[in-house]
Amino acid sequence: MARSHPIERYRNFGIMAHIDAGKTTTTERILYYTGKSHKIGEVHDGAATMDWMTQEQERGITITSAATTCFWQDNRLNIIDTPGHVDFTIEVERSLRVLDGAVCVLDGNQGVEPQTETVWRQADKYDVPRIVFVNKMDKIGADFYRCVQDIIDRVAGKPVCLQIPIGSESDFAGVIDLIKMKAIVWNGEALGASFEEKDIPADLADKAAEYRNKLVEAAVEMDDAAMEAYLEGTEPDAATLRKLVRTAVQRRAFHPVLCGSAFKNKGVQPLLDAVVDFLPSPVDRGAVEGIDFKTEEPTVRNPTDEDPFAMLAFKIMDDPFVGTITFCRIYSGKVEAGQGVINSTRDKKERVGRMLLMHANNREDIKEAYAGDIVALAGLKDVRTGDTLCDPTHAVILERMEFPEPVITIAIEPKSKADQEKLGLALSKLANEDPSFRVSTDQESGQTILKGMGELHLDIKVDILKRTYKVDANIGAPQVAYRETITKKVDIDYTHKKQTGGTGQFARVKFTVEPNETGKGFEFESKIVGGAVPKEYIPGVEKGLQSVISSGVLAGFPVVDVKVSLIDGAFHEVDSSALAFEIASRAGLREGLQKAGSVLLEPIMKVEVVTPEDYTGSVIGDLNSRRGQIQGQDMRGNAVVINAMVPLANMFGYVNQLRSFSQGRANYTMQFDHYEQVPSAVAAEVQAKYA
User: Fold this and answer.
1) Contacts of 552 (CB under 8 A, 6+ apart)
2) Bridge partners of 535?
3) pLDDT tens digits along 542-552
4) Which DSSP helix (H) or strand (E) runs through 10?
5) Contacts of 414 (CB under 8 A, 6+ apart)
6) What is the DSSP letter of 167?
């Protein structure tokens, strides 16, 4: 089976937004108009096609990014639906890694919200070209022009309008297309499938001319010839203008802005046209960089079928019918079902079993796939998120993805032996699917500890355990993931000696223990010269150090940002061993951490509260009582936006407190920002609790 569409006609894009901006609804409408969905699924009634896990349908939020293929005007669109809730930021980052472009959906009433800022920054990190869709223009309080200003003020974006709205709130009737200079008005009876082009209403003629000028001036900067012609009085025609806007999007020179109401079926077809006209194809995005598996030299893979085959696994899911499904983006070459490949990240052979093309939650078996495709593979044995699968004769490792450390933990205890067995299996699957979710065992209590990015993140994991895997378990209260570090440099000289008849144990280590740069973690360096500690014992030294780093001296929390340099030592021909050096370095480092001024660190969360003005005083007072530091406050419409940095330890149960004193009218978002030293009074309490 040959390619259905040339790669130039592919658009791999994501839809990104804050929770409730209407992202899933927008995706649903796209699927409806491209003919993939016969019935429009509403998020409100829990029937949206993209939200296919039970937890998503109940909560009305999107958790997993499902990949869907559909077609528009002879172009092949691969859409990744990304979650908009802060606890799932990792899913968004993972999707952005494999996209060529994105549509950023804003709520016409709320403008740029905290999660939008986060996602926008992530899209900047991966250089993702994007267009903006101001949604919910029919909502009370919708203000298109404020949203455009928000893009400048809050994310330092460069918005350029391609459309302006005709009316707003309940009078929203359509848009003015500034490229064609025509009004587009939707027919309400036909579910938005039909619309007509009309002349621009007289009362909007001046505004349309003003924004058309801004568009043309921004666009002609992309091309010297167009700029010269414009300065001589010749405006570009519609086709040239589209070409110039496309260039601007590829170069990320500006961000085209469109508007509409996905829920009311207005503005979706022009949005699809904009995706095809302006977002890049895999060819426009160019070669992907990697490292040659054998030589470890930098290399590239071009988006052609002729280049050696390489793809990146960006999401792993457990499907009740097919088993484990791995979503992959093919960057180069082609792959067939049954083909042998290598997982170059782990140096393991794999075989491509079934290959599926996914549409939200129904699937189509395919026999082969090509560069640019996003496919789901069933039957892979040991593949994790971020792994590269490629041609064994031309192996390459594509860029690894980096995932943040979890900041919150809960203990889980299965109720019976049968639950214990099910729990082990389920947790290993969940940890494989989501790299920001970790599982460990508490050495002393033997309890299973779950670690995640926030309360909702762990709530949903527990819900999946209970529903999908039928595990009955007791769940502990959430705990903060504290860390330990040191504040000064010390020198340690430690000798381990044990004589019990026969062969004894002897090892002497001298090392410096010093604070490392923030975020660098633990670093070990051997500066041994002349064999004071033989090479074969160095791994023993490192093993001993690692065991202390995983459980610090204050309250048993992991130690971060510490550098240990082994500078000298001594050994005995008979009594020394790797084990003796492991014991010596372990005891030596424990002594070192105590002398080096160990302190506790706690996660500090960036909190944004949006509240009616009446409750501002209560919100600020409450945040201060939680050891919060107010960073500033702004007006957004008739609401007050309060930004603060608050320790995670003081944020548990905040949602209920906020609801109660604002009668449910205030809401908040929070995300991890950084680690900070715990004040001594609080540190003493924490140590007493965990010691």
Assistant:
1) 484, 558, 559, 593, 598
2) none
3) 999 999 998 88
4) strand 10-17
5) 420, 422, 423, 448, 471, 472, 473
6) S
Q: What is the reported pLDDT for 263?
A: 83
Chain Cα centroid distance, residue 516: 27
Q: Identify any residues that bridge with 426 across adjacent strands, giving them in sequence order.
A: none
In this predicted structure, the answer to whether residue 59 has a pLDDT above a threshold of 60 is no
Task: Summarize the confidence of residues 352-373 as an average pLDDT.
Answer: 81
- Residue ranges of domains in the chain, CATH in brackets: 7-285 (3.40.50.300), 288-398 (2.40.30.10), 408-481 (3.30.70.870), 484-597 (3.30.230.10), 600-690 (3.30.70.240)
The CA-based angle 570-573-576, given to 5 degrees, is 65
Per-residue pLDDT for 572 more than 50?
yes
Output helix, strand, coil percentages for the chain, rounded to the nearest 5.
30, 35, 35
User: Is residue 251 scored above 70 in pLDDT?
Assistant: yes
With a CB cutoff of 8 Å and minimum separation 6, the contacts of 571 are 506, 507, 508, 532, 533, 534, 537, 581
User: Which H, E and C letters describe 199-265, residue by residue?
Assistant: CCCHHHHHHHHHHHHHHHHHHHCCCHHHHHHHHCCCCCCHHHHHHHHHHHHHHCCCEEEEECECCCC
CB neighbour class for 599 (10 Å; exposed up to 12, middle 13-18, buried from 19)? middle
Q: Which helix (H) or strand (E) holds 160?
A: strand 159-161
Dihedral, CA atoms, 673, 428, 81, 90, nearest 10 degrees? 10
**Which pLDDT does position 573 carry in this prediction?**
83
| Residue keyed to tokens 């909702």 | 456
Average pLDDT across the chain, whole number: 85
Residues in contact with 212: Cβ distance below 8 Å, sequence separation at least 6, in sequence order: 178, 181
How wide is the angle at C-alpha 87 spanned by C-alphas 22 and 409, nearest 5°? 160
Name, in order, each residue with C-beta under 8 angstroms of 301's C-beta and a sequence gap of 6 or more: 287, 288, 290, 307, 308, 310, 331, 332, 333, 396, 398
Those residues whose C-beta lies under 8 Å from the C-beta of residue 292, and which sit 6 or more positions away, are: 298, 299, 395, 396
Question: Tokens 């001589």 correspond to what residue?
Answer: 232
CB 608 within 8 A of CB 670: yes
CB 95 within 8 A of CB 13: no
Tokens of 350: 């794999």
- pTM, whole model, 2 decimals? 0.69
Q: Would you say the C-alpha torsion 306, 309, 315, 320 has a positive or negative sign?
A: positive
The secondary structure of residue 404, as a DSSP letter, is P
Residue 425, both tokens: 């299996």
The CA distance from 137 to 171, in Å, is 9
On the question of pLDDT at 488 being above 80, the answer is yes
How far is residue 197's CA from residue 416's CA, in Å, rounded to a whole number? 66
Q: What is the dihedral of CA 527, 532, 536, 537, to 10 degrees?
A: -90
